[in-house]
Write a structure and sequence with these properties.
Elements: E1 4-6, H1 10-16, E2 21-23, E3 35-37, H2 45-55, E4 61-63, H3 66-73, H4 76-79, E5 87-89, H5 93-97, H6 107-118, E6 121-124, E7 128-132, E8 138-142, H7 153-166, H8 171-191, H9 208-213, H10 215-230
Parallel strand pairs: 1-2, 3-4, 4-5, 5-6
Antiparallel strand pairs: 6-7, 7-8
């Protein structure tokens, strides 16, 4: 697939990742299948215009980071989005609270409430990640360890969700698969292990970039396990 980046750092992105198609404006992005909005975006008026553009596009949108904050401040944007725009939100507990209520002790109830309110799929990040759909469906992904909880790892997660949405995967499936693969990649990164079978219980500090580097290994391990169980 093709990754497109839109933002003021387009030149820097092209220099670091020449395979990425970069543009300075959403109107110049070209043909896309899904949007990931929020990481590094800020909350300016221009950033709000980007979020509104994506929500009006009729394409799947993953809302993360600063875009979660903007949507919490202007929830009408979710109500006014294009009818064909499927929405996935990825708040952590602090971002969730900006919608009016803290998460509290019942994470499943919290995620489900917001999902129904916004008619969206909500991935509530945490040591136990909860994914809730507007129809009441719930998935739970418990983490194996805390090492992957590092700055920027949520941006990696939203990127995986966006890639799966762009492939045509339904929002609940995309969020659930992304959470599992992201967690496994974090474990592989922290353990320094080449495969899931060699994970160390000890682990070590890792980073978002190292976690992203292990995504192919995590996907390979999941596919291998799936093929084994199917045979």
């Amino acid at each position: 697939g093709m990754v497109r980046f839109v933002g003021t750092a387009a030149d820097a992105v092209r220099a670091r990742w020449p395979e990425v198609v970069a543009a300075g404006s959403v109107t110049d992005a070209g043909r896309v299948q899904a949007w990931v909005v929020g990481p590094g975006l800020g909350t300016s008026g221009a950033a709000l215009d980007v979020l509104a553009f994506a929500l009006r596009s009729g394409l799947p949108v993953c809302v993360d980071a600063d875009a979660v904050t903007m949507l919490a401040n202007r929830p009408r944007l979710a109500d006014e989005r294009d009818p064909d725009t499927t929405l996935v939100l990825t708040p952590h507990d602090g971002e969730y609270a900006r919608f009016g209520e803290p998460v509290g002790d019942d994470r499943v109830a919290a995620a489900t409430t917001l999902a129904k309110r916004l008619r969206a799929t909500v991935l509530l990040k945490g040591f136990t990640t909860v994914i809730a759909g507007p129809d009441g469906q719930v998935l739970v992904n418990p983490a194996r360890g805390a090492w992957p909880a590092t700055a920027g790892s949520g941006d990696v997660l939203s990127g995986v969700i966006g890639a799966l949405l762009a492939s045509g995967m339904p929002p609940m499936d995309a969020a659930g698969c992304a959470a599992f693969v992201h967690s496994l990649a974090g474990d592989l990164s922290a353990a320094g292990a080449p495969t899931g079978a060699e994970l160390s219980a000890a682990g070590a500090p890792t980073s978002a970039s190292r976690l992203a580097d292990r995504l192919p290994d995590a996907i390979r391990a999941v596919r291998a396990a799936s093929l084994t169980s199917a045979s």
